[in-house]
Design a protein that fits this description.
Length: 129
Amino acid sequence: MIGADTLVVLDQHFLGKPNNGGEAESMLRLLSGREHNVYTGFTIFNKPDGKYCSDVEVTTVKFRVLEDEEIRNYVRSGRPLDKAGAYGIQDDFGAVFVERIEGCFYNVVGFPLTKFYVSLRKFLRNNDG
């Protein structure tokens, strides 16, 4: 079994998925013009023998300064409501909010493919036989 979740962290603010449009707008205003970190943790669990491994990927994301109208239009689209930090780098608006990233792009999308693949290969080698 595989489980994973993503969280956006800005200073001391932990930004999961917003509960409504108002929360989404607030999150995007917090992120506007600033750097934040995206954390995705995952666990690989082998139920028959109870063995597991867990890891986390961290990516730094810098937003450009966002205009209120951009934020409102994006929230109105509904796309940020199911995403940690109220944005998806893969969305039309979310993609143009991001000025730069340092680290794994796929982590910001929501699943760190390379780190997961490396962890899975190691897990399978260590549990072979």
